[in-house]
Amino acid sequence: MSQKQKAGANSNANSKRAHTSPGLNPEEQAWVQQQLTDYPGYTQALQAATHTRQVQEALSPLLAQSEPVQQALIQGLGKQITQEAADLLQALHELASTKELRKEARRSLLRLENAKITPHWHLPAEEQVPAQPITPQASTPPRFWKGFYTDTLAEEEAAEVILLWEEGDGYKEARIMGMTLDYRLHGIEDFFYEAHLSKRQAEKRLEYIRTQQFSGARFLPCTLPEARHLMEDALDVLEEHGARAPIDFVRYQHIVDELILSSPDAEIENEDEEIMPKENELGPFDMAQEMQNFFENFFAAGDLFDQTVEEFFDAWSEGNYGEAYDLLAHDSPLRQGLEREAWVQLREQWRAEAQPANFRILGLEERLEDEEDEDFLDEEDEDDELEEEDEDDELEDEEDEEDEDEDELDIEAEEGIVDVCWSLEMRQTPLSERLPELPRATAVYDVTGRHWFWSSFTVIDEGGEPRLVSHVDEGTQLQSLSDEELETRSDELIQRYEQLMEKLGIDEEGNRIVREESEDEENEELVFTQTLAGLQKGITITSKYLHHLDALIAHHPDEQSEQYQQAASQAEASQDLERAAYYLQAIADRFPELAPKALISLANAQQRLAQAAEQDEERSTRFFKLAELNLHTSLEKERSALGLILLAQQLSHEYAKFDEAEKLLHEAEQLSPNANEALMIAVNQGMIEEYRNHIPQAIEHYRRATTIAPDFPNLWNNIGYLQLNMEQYDEAEKSFLQSVDHDPTNTEAYVHLADLYVQVREDIDGAEDVLQQGLEINEDDIGILGKLTEVYIQKGELKEAEQYLEAAEEISADSAFVQELRANLDQARAEKRRAMKSRGEQRKANQSQNKAKKHKK
């Protein structure tokens, strides 16, 4: 199965979990079912409402529920084929507090539209500010738990702030509040608030915000007084500019006042102190964030020449042209003989016309005289050779070698050439020709306006500081080479890439070759770091190779389809889907005989781009529409199983057009699909039945998928989960065991199996055994460590529970899940001490009674 097809089928198999609301307890499920019976009453209240405040009050019992509960209700309403359900969904779509809930409501509305039912109700126009929602009161008042803000205040004059409070009995519940603060114009640009969450739910929400919504930002700890300081400054900006606060902020302003602005715990000691990023202070997310941003930031820790070029691009791409100008040598032709102010003004004018956005560095490295000998992975071999040299020869030559090394360092410090492969979304404008630092693109994707460039900068030492002196448009210069020269250089790049992958231990399929594990932890960390650096170097080589292919294509744009295909394949392998889409569109346009298959691959890339842009609704919708259009065009030219499957996948998952999607899948079955396509058909048919809440039929389709690919990731685990919800415990146990057998690295199956043994079988020893098996697979899995802690607490073996809890705390001490386990273990110990004390007192009482009896006798 190709990686592309696996990705498509896997995304279906995993994405369906988001629509089954697996986290609801029996009480919540019962509440949802009751509302699905009583919902016409809510619709009557909507029709009677004359302004938004009344609508808010009417829906407050629904809006006060947790997000998973609201999501389950919305999904259930999408299956009620009535006008009342459509009207209520429309209201929930208007007033839902999160984008995820609004999107789910829209999906349910689409399902009803397919049944020719559309909402008649509309939000009253008299008042745009909803009433304050009813927030359930906790038995213990909330207290500040923790907070974070992004370190973007200095550079962007804006920050994302996330605050959490804990409350309830034993402080097991939580609230979360987030806001985008803009100190230039809007004051408060965005706001959300969620209450009545478990601590684990709050932690998951926090992790989603950090990794999905603001994946490129570094989060720093934020105290409650700091949060108040930040918010008051933002409110001053809002008032000064006459901006309108977000509707959710107005809705929850009384809570903001209570928890932040008027809270005694948020008193500011120094009102004039400015909140700025904390230097050298690592937040709880920094380690994970550093790993996530490694590829973008790797070279910043390298040579000064590399770092200077990256600093120039950072400043230039963010519109800080004064800073960029200062990084140019005084006599650099890049300054164009202009003073700083004039140079900046020209680029600001260009920025206003070109509207550059989404800048990316794809590869950055200093060019050495002999690149074949510069591979950092050869350093250990060089060290071994030096150790084998005769010690006397070393002593004799030591002074000469030191002198030579100093000379070489002086030469390197004087001048260097740094290659940069980069891309940027921008509009075409004549001013682009007037910027010497902006090369001509070798490829342009018209859909997004993304341009791909290859630049090289000469960097010199000027007064002890590295400065950029000149720029070469490497991509354009390649086009002046002959085909033979380009092919020779391309072959050299391929050879260099293959040698690098061999040293990294990665095969042609991109899989890691298993080698003998080292017991030296420091050596393991070194190898891991070198592997990441090697992968970045591989991306740089691939980027240069693509620019060579661009030059060959420019020589013969209508002749060599193989070059387009090779370029598309390499771009996809390096995760540059926009560039892959550019090449695939060119194949479809220039080579009619290849158009049907090229359009399918293009649509697949666009679907993935749409999914990646989920937070940008306009961009995501645009890519989905393009994908649908290209699939229809391909199928008009040639009916193919894969084209039908991808179109059905989009119609069902994005538009809830299940009947239409089902017909396409049935047609695909008639076209003799290969094994991979048959697998995708079965998975998508299972998804459709699960959306319809036809769980037995869904399981049947998923079982058919297992006969095609029994080791397909998460398939057996999903089947077991559905069976568990249907209380088919024996079948669920078999499915989880199948998951462990076919996909042993999926540790979620071990946890589900342990839950079944504890909650249904009351076999706590069986749960312990299966969790220990999972621990052998992944000793750092926090889910397994946590579940083992629970098991040993239940068994009364508190020393063992402490052992596994400490291991979990080493991985994520700040996790609400881990903190809850710590509280449970402390409580178990306290109860054990009370029980022992009680038994001791009882023994003393018995002894006293016995003595009294003897004395009486």
Question: What is the strand and helix layout of this fold?
Answer:
Elements: H1 3-15, H2 26-48, H3 52-63, H4 67-77, H5 83-95, H6 99-114, E1 143-150, H7 153-156, E2 158-167, E3 173-182, E4 187-198, H8 199-213, E5 219-221, H9 224-241, H10 247-251, H11 253-261, H12 286-292, H13 294-297, H14 304-317, H15 321-326, H16 340-354, E6 357-367, H17 379-388, H18 391-414, E7 415-425, E8 443-445, E9 450-462, E10 465-473, H19 474-478, H20 483-504, H21 521-555, H22 561-573, H23 577-590, H24 595-612, H25 617-637, H26 641-655, H27 658-669, H28 675-691, H29 695-708, H30 715-725, H31 729-742, H32 747-761, H33 764-777, H34 782-795, H35 798-812, H36 816-856
Antiparallel strand pairs: 1-2, 1-5, 2-3, 3-4, 6-7, 7-9, 8-9, 9-10
- The rough form would be described as globular
Q: What Rg is obtained from the alpha carbons, in whole angstroms? A: 31 Å
How would a crystallographer describe the biggest sheet?
Answer: 5 strands, antiparallel
Question: Mean of residue pLDDT?
Answer: 81
What structural class is derived from the secondary structure elements?
Answer: alpha+beta
| Count of DSSP strands | 10
**Assembly type:** single chain
Strand order of the largest sheet: 4-3-2-1-5
How far apart the termini lie comes to 90 Å
If you had to describe this structure to a student in words, what would you say it looks like?
The chain has 857 residues and is α+β, with helices and mostly antiparallel strands. It is built from 36 helices and ten strands. The strands form two sheets. The chain has a five-stranded antiparallel β-sheet with strand order 4-3-2-1-5. α26 packs parallel to α28. The N and C termini lie far apart (90 Å). The N terminus is likely disordered.
